[in-house]
User: What shape does this take?
Amino acid sequence: MRVRVWINPNTPLLANCMAKRDDGVLSWVEFIYERVYKVCKRCGVIGHSALHRTFSNPNIERMINEQIEKIHRRFEYVTSYDL
Assistant: This one.
């Protein structure tokens, strides 16, 4: 499946997550981002390399948890993630 989405370039990109399908079954979904360049392999934020990381690990974890909470509130189901 291919989907075009809007992403916030100032927050870490999620590599994958668990999502509930319409039939109620939980599925592991892996994300592949096209036309996104210079993604930090350590924090997932666009615009710098791992050598020039601008966020600390606690800040990265907080930003990811905020994204997960927004997804939970919008779609009313539990998600999980893996970087």
User: Anything to note?
Assistant: Helices lie at 57-75.
